[in-house]
Design goal:
Largest sheet: 8 strands, mixed
Structural class: alpha/beta
Strand content: 15-25%
Radius of gyration: 17 Å
Distance between the termini: 27 Å
Helix content: 40-55%
CATH architecture: 3-Layer(aba) Sandwich
Number of helices: 11
Number of strands: 8
CATH class: Alpha Beta
Low-confidence stretches: none
Number of domains: 1
Order of helices and strands: EEEEHHEHEHHHHHEHEHH
Length: 254
Amino acid sequence: MHTFVGDMALRSFGTGKSLLWVHGLGESSLCFESVIAQSALKAYTHWLLDLPGYGRSRWAEPLSLPETAKLLAPVLELTGCCVVAGHSMGGVLAVMMAEQFGIDHIEAIVNIEGNLSLGDCQYSGRVAGCTEQDFLQWGRRELLDGLYHQGMVDEAHRGYYASMRLADPRSVYLHSNDLVALSEGETMIGRMESLDVPSYYLAGVPRGICERSLELLSGSRISHDIVEDSGHWPFLDRPADFAEKLSDWLNRGG
């Protein structure tokens, strides 16, 4: 199924329990297309969402991350009670969705490499370090140039470059500042621990979240796992390993 929910493009594939995938900063749902084909995840209906201003979705007035999470209520009406798997900024949104909508609408959340501390703001920190005018005039172009060259040697960045070209730079700028502010306070661990929705964190090591975030995660009560020999996109770097770990946790009931 391909449809629009307000300004948001939404696609679904497969049959079974609903699994909603939410992409990160500057990304699009294209990044999830290979992992949903993994045999370990064949028992799910996969819902691929492009957030407002990203991917196939329409550009509109940019909204903060809390406002964006609230905007996803109609998406949950279509998916029914679902597991939300969010990558990077999408992991932060998954936590916000669980806080806002609770166990009646969200069965569990999976936070994939979501920001936990300031060291995780590799790209958002660079964007937020500019004024909005500077980012729109030259910062976005420099960011794209860097992603293009990284994409020559790394599949994940090759896809990231393509998706970032589609993204509304105003949304990228606003969300970068939101992510930096959230990460500076190191509050996401406590927010995940306080949820009434089962939650799971998947990290890529050694090229994923920073050492400080791994330290915070290890000292927390959050169910978590590590995808070895991976970076910030573990579902692209090690799709089979990633899918097995996710499937195992979901099969245990979260």
